[in-house]
Amino acid sequence: MRFLDELNDNQRKAVEFVDGASLVIAGAGSGKTRVLTYKIAYLLKKGFAPSSILALTFTNKAAREMKSRIADLVGERMARYLWMGTFHSIFSRILRSEAGTIGFTSNFSIYDTADSHSLIKSIIKGLNLDDKIYRPGLVQNRISTAKNNLITPGAYASNADLLNADKYARVPRMQEIYRIYTEKCKQSDAMDFDDLLLQTNILFRDHPEILQRYRERFNFILVDEYQDTNYAQYLIIRRLSEGHERICVVGDDSQSIYSFRGANIDNILQFKNNYQSAQVFKLERNYRSTKMIVNAANSLIDKNKNRIPKEVYTENQDGEKIKVLQLYSDFEEAAVVSEYVIELKESEEYAYKDIAILYRTNAQSRVLEDQMRKGGISYRIYGGLSFYQRKEIKDVIAYCRLICNPADEEALKRCINTPARGIGETTVNKVLETAALHGVTAWEVMGDILKYNLPVHSGTANKLTDFRGMISTFMEQKDVLDAYQLVDSVIKTTGMIRDTYTDNSPESISRRENIEELVNAIREFCEIKTNAGEQASLVDFLAEVSLLTDQDTDKNADEDKVTLMTVHAAKGLEFKVVFVVGMEEELFPSAFSMDSARELEEERRLFYVAITRAEERCFITYAKSRFRNGQLNFVNPSRFIKDIDSKFLDFPVQQTIPSSSNFVDEEIENFSGFRNAGTRFTRTSTRTYYPKKQTEEKPVYYDTLNPARKLTKLESSPTISSTNADLNETFTPTIPVGKFVKHSMFGIGKVLSVSMSGANEKAEIDFGEKGVKTLLLKFAKLEVLD
DNA sequence: TGACCGCGTCTTTTT
DNA sequence: GACGCGGTCA
Fold first, then answer.
1. A225 classed as catalytic
2. Under DSSP, is residue A57 helix (H, G, I), strand (E, B) or coil?
3. pLDDT tens for residues A85-137?
4. CA A753 and chain centroid, separation
C-alpha cells in the first residue's frame, strides 16, 4: 500500500493498528485528518466492506471533506458506502428506520434550538410560572444537560441530588417542565438535537436485538474529535463496539473546548480505563506552525494540570516571536489590527485570505468590522445568524415540516399566520388549549372544529379550515411532486415570496435572495438524488437540512477575504497569520469561568486552540478599555499572556507590560477602584482615561502630544474636504508637508511630500530607521504632531 | 392585531 | 449595542 509511505512513523503505526481499541492523541497540526482518512483507506484495502465502517465526526463539513479525501485514495465507488457523518445525522438515520419501536414515526421532525426554546417558553407560561425565575434559556440548558447525561424525566424526578439542586436554585418545578417537554415532543412526533442521541441510547438499551444488528453491521468504528464527545455519545459508541472493540478514537485533550455543550473531557482522559486493552498512539510532530508558535503554545498549555502528557514539536522554521500589542481601547485595537492587515497585504507576502482575526465573543466583531470596512479590507464574518436560522428560511422549512408531519406543533405555530392570514395569537392559543384538553394534536382539532367545540367565530373557523385545506393539498402533492416542485408550490401558493416583491427595501431583497438560495439548494438536492437514481422526497430533504448549519455552507472559500470568527468557530482551521484580539481578564478568560479551575483550564485550552491556528505569524492584542454592554470598562491584560514563556513573545510598541510580577500598571489600578465602586463610564462621558505612554521613541514628540487627538481621522480633518481635493488641481494637503506625524506601526516620521493618486491622497513619509514609506492617507491612520 | 417605546438582559454554540 | 419583552395606543 503505497500511500502509507506518505505517513510518518507514528502516523503509520496508528493507521496500521486494527486489532482492537486505540486512542490517537493528535496534537495540533499533527495530521489528524490524514491519519483518519488513511486509516479508513487502509481498512478498505484490508478487506473491510465500506458499509461495515462507521466514522463519526462533529460537523457535516468534516465528514464531507474526509469522504472526498478517501475517495481520492480508494475511489468514489467505495467511499460512497461508508457510514460517515455526524453523530446526529447517522443516528437520526438509524432512528428513522427504527422509529416505530420507540413510539415515533419515520417522518419525525427535528426541533432546532429555537423550536425547543419556544416550546419550553410556552410550557412555562402554561404552568403559570414566572419566566424571570424559570428563564427558558436556563431551563433549556438544564434539560439539555440532563439528556446529554442520559437522565430521562423519570430518572430526573427520582434523583434527589438534582431535585435538591433545583430546590436550592429556586426552580423546584424543573422536573415537571422537563416531563411535559418530553411529552409534548413525543406528541408532536419531534425530537430535539439531544434526543437524537438520547433516543438512540434508549433504543439500544431497550432493544438488545436491534443493538445486536448494528453491532454486527459496524465492524469498525472511528470517532473524530473524541475530546468533545458527551456521555450520550460515549455510551452509544461503547455499546456498538462491545464485543469486537474495533474502535479508533482520535482527538486532542488540549483542544477540548465544548464542555458548555455537555462535552466531557474525561471521555478522552479515561479512554484507557474504559477500554482496558487500548493502545495509545501519540502524534506529536506539528506540520503546521513555526517553532516559535508551537513552543509558545506548548508553554501555555503546560500550565494546565489535567492533561495527557505530550511533547508537540516541529521541524518547521523558527519563525518570528508572537507580537503582543497593547492598545488604549477596543476601537484602537480594531484600527491597529486593520492597519497591520493592510501592511501584511501590501507586503505581498500574504493575501487577505491568509489572515484570520479571532475573538472570544461574537460581540467583539462589530468594531473590527467597522475598521475593516473603513480600511477597504474585504472580510468575511462567520457566526451570527446562520442561514438556516433566518426567519424567512425557517418559515419555508416550517411549511415543509408541517406537510411531512402535521403533528409538528412548533411548525404549525410558525406558519399558521405567516404570511398574515388573520389567525391571531388568541385563536392559536384556543386551538392549542382545545387540543391539549382532548389529548389530540392541533391539526386534528382544526380538522373538526365542531366536534372539539372550538370556541371561535365562524369567520375564524373558516380561516382555520382554509389553512388546513391548503396544507392538506400540499400533503397530497407530496407523493407526486419532488421536493423542489413542492417547495416551489408552497412558496407560490402561500405568497411568501410575493411579499418580497412588493417593496424593494434592503430587508425585503435580502429575504427574497435567501428564499431563492434555499430553493436552489433544494433543486440541487433533487438533482443529486435523481442522478443517483433515488427519490428526492421532501422528507429526505428535511432530514438533511434540519441537521445542516452555516458551517457547512462555506462556499466561495477561495475568495480573498480576511476571516473574522470566534475561537470556537476556528477549531480545525489554519491560517498563515492569526490575530487573537481582546486578550483581557473577564473577556478571555471569560468572567463566567473564573470561579472554577476546570473552566479556567478550558479557557486556556481555547486560547491554545487560537494560537495553534497560526502557521507563520501570530499577534495577540489587548485593550486597556473596552465597551461592553454599552458601557466603558477599564480592563486588565489576560493572565494567559503571562502563561506564555516571555521568550516567545515580542512587545514592540510599549514597554509598559512588566514581564515580572505585576501586570497591572498603577493607573489602571487606581481606576479599578472606580470600577469596583460600581462607577461606569459611558461612551459620552468626558471622563476618559489616557495612560502615560512610554515608548522607545524620542520623548520630545510626546510632550506636545495631545492624547485626546490620538488616531485623528484624516477624512474629518478641518483643513479640506476630500471632494474639494478631487476638484481642485492645486489641493491643500490634509497633512502638512514638513511636519511630524505618528504612525502606529512605523512610529514618528516626517512628511516629505503629499500628492494625489487618482482620487486618493498619498504621502511620502520618512520614518527614519524604518525607512521612507509611501502611504495612502485614507488607509494609514496618522496623527499629526504639533 | 400590529406598530412603537422603554426596560432589563447579556458567553462560547460542531448538531 | 442589540434583542426580546411587556406595556400602550391607534
1. yes
2. strand
3. 999 999 999 999 999 999 999 999 999 888 999 899 889 888 888 888 888 88
4. 47
Interval A748-753 mean pLDDT: 71
**Any catalytic annotation for residue A33?**
yes
Q: Which nucleotide has the least CA–C1' distance to A58?
A: B14
Judged by C1' against the alpha carbon of A631, the nearest nucleotide is C1
Question: Can you list the alpha helix ranges (DSSP code H) found in A495-596?
Answer: 496-502, 506-531, 538-545, 567-570
How many angstroms is C1' of C1 away from CA of A383?
A: 17
User: How far is the CA of A4 from the CAs of A35, A37, A565, in angstroms?
Assistant: 10, 11, 35
User: Please, what is the end-to-end C-alpha distance for chain A in angstroms?
Assistant: 72
Residue A623: beta bridge partners?
A327
Q: Confidence class of residue A743 from pLDDT cuts 50, 70 and 90?
A: low
β-partners of residue A617 are A577
Higher pLDDT, A226 or A4: A226
Q: What is the DSSP string of A172-184?
A: TTHHHHHHHHHHH
Collapsing DSSP to helix, strand or coil, A761 comes out as strand
Q: What is the DSSP letter of A285?
A: E
Active-site option among A166, A189, A225, A603: A225
What sign has the CA pseudo-torsion A501, A507, A512, A513? positive
CB A652 within 8 A of CB A323: yes
Q: CA A745, A588, A562, A297: dihedral to nearest 10 degrees?
A: 80
In this prediction, residues A33-51 reach a mean pLDDT of: 94
> In sequence order, what are the beta bridge partners of A22?
A248, A279
Inter-residue contact A247 to A270 (CB < 8 Å)? no
Contact assessment for residue A411 and residue A109, using Cβ atoms and an 8 Å cutoff: yes
Output the CA torsion sign for A155, A199, A569, A511: negative
More confident residue, A59 or A314: A314
A32 is catalytic: yes
How many Cα atoms are found within 13 Å in the side-chain-facing hemisphere of A227?
A: 20
